[in-house]
Amino acid sequence: MNALADLQPPRFKQGACQVVSHRSRSWRFSRADLVERAGLGKEETTAVSSRHLLLLNLKGASERGQHFLDGRKAEFVRRKPGAILFIPAGCEWHGWEDGAPNAAYLSISVDPALVKKLCTELSGGQPPALSPDLGFEDPVIMNAARGIASEIDDRNPVSTMLTESFIATIFAQLLRKQRFVAPARKGGLTNCHLTRVVELIDEDLTAELSLVQLAEHIGFSVPHFCRAFRQTVGCPPHTFIVQRRLEQAQHQLRATNLSVTDIALACGFSSSSHFSNAFKRVVGTTPLNYRHSWSLG
Question: Is 109 in the same domain as 205?
Answer without folding.
Answer: no
